[in-house]
UniProtKB/TrEMBL annotation:
May be involved in the metabolism of insect hormones and in the breakdown of synthetic insecticides. GO terms for molecular function: heme binding; iron ion binding; monooxygenase activity; oxidoreductase activity, acting on paired donors, with incorporation or reduction of molecular oxygen. InterPro entries: Cyt_P450, Cyt_P450_CS, Cyt_P450_E_grp-IV, Cyt_P450_sf, Insect_CytP450_Detox. The keyword Heme applies. This is Cytochrome P450. Its cofactor is heme.
Amino acid sequence: MENLYKLYEGKPFVGFWRFRTPGLLIRDPEVTKTVLLQEFNSFQQNGFRVHPELDPLVHKNPFMLTGEEWKTTRQTLTPSFTNSKLKPLLPLMEEVAAELVQYLRANCHTCGPDGFDAKDLCSKYTMEVVATSAFGIKGHSFQNPKAELREMTMQLLQPGLKKSIELMLINFLPSLADLLKLRMMPVEVDQYFRGVVRTVVDEREKKNITRNDFMQNLINLKKKAVENGETYSDEDITAHAVTFMTDGFETSAIIMSFILHELARHPDVQEELRQEVVAARGANGGRLPFEVLLELPLLDQVIHETLRLHPALPAMEKVCTRAISLRAADGTELHVPKGQLVILPVLGFHKDPRYFHDPERFDPDRFSPGRKSDIPKYMFLGFGGGPRQCLGMRFALQQTKLAIATMVAHFVIKATPKTPEVVEQDPTSFLACAKGGLWVRFEERQTSL
Ligand code: HEM
């Protein structure tokens, strides 16, 4: 999509074919705002669908839902992502960050000249954070690369060849996929997650345990629904915990690995960030309290600039649900019929010199308080935009900030011979994925406040 975006400079709309489906690429900020916000009701469906009966746990993910079902689910889950619910998760995340430091200390001298595959490393951390926050369990990712929770989640997120072909059919030839009863989540993964949730819920109910986590919020939602004579089933609890797992684990690992890559390639920014983190830890007894962590300015800018250069979702797909006329800034008008696939080229916008000067340059200062208002609205779409903007954004920022701050406080992150100069996107991946991986090495620092 980035190439198509560049090829049609000056045009607000570009038509293309994806297999037998016509697609519409948007190249205009005004139209992007119209699609995401002003005419949201005409574009409220994401370009993915799963069969509600064959794939109930995936279908209940807000990302897949539309209409009233989407609205109710989003309203139900939103309170779990407010600061008052996220703050109590910090001690759980800190335990995982301490495990990450231990793991790096134990392995940084023996990992060889190429260092660590940053994505693999970060996904151990995000898997454990999500496991403890969403399911209230440990995933044992640092100890065992083949741990069951990780293996089951990976079956969903990095499917093998046969499953990938099935997924293509589900997306591009849905009627054939329905006929063949193809499902996105393998049966054994579905059964596994239902079993995990049943065990956790039973144990908490039997032993009257309450814990400050997402699972507790879901259990409380069920209790409230029962009191009000409404339905909130065990399947709903499982589906929403799985949403947390699938949406929260991989995307955050991707962005963290790109941050490590950029910090290794920009030691000056890394050093400035270290000073910011070390000073804040020093002023708070060696910890970063919730409010302090969220407010560290350079840390926030580094994350946003990395998301600009390497958005986890390089393009967003929407489907027109109500025919509409779109008008671009240059006056071009286009009739968009119901059912039309519409693509918002996130990476194209993020690398367009009209919106981001010298776009290939890693420049966290673009997101500084004095400059970020220069970025046109809806041209930075790292977390999407409008009513469907990423539901887990605050959680993602919290876990990412804690991991990066902890790593720079304890280690110097360095490039290795395998660290790519220019990151090449793997064209087969729907999420951002660097061809050949992102490799970095860690040197332990003497002082670690
Ligand atoms: C750095 C990490 C993350 C990135 C870059 C990211 C990015 C995105 C993007 C681009 C969208 C589409 C937004 C749109 O259509 O406008 C999205 C949707 C969503 N994200 Fe995230 N996400 C991240 C982490 C998370 C986490 C941690 C969770 C949950 C714990 C989460 C849950 C969701 C959900 C439920 C949706 C669908 C929202 C809806 O359609 O109403 N995400 N995310």
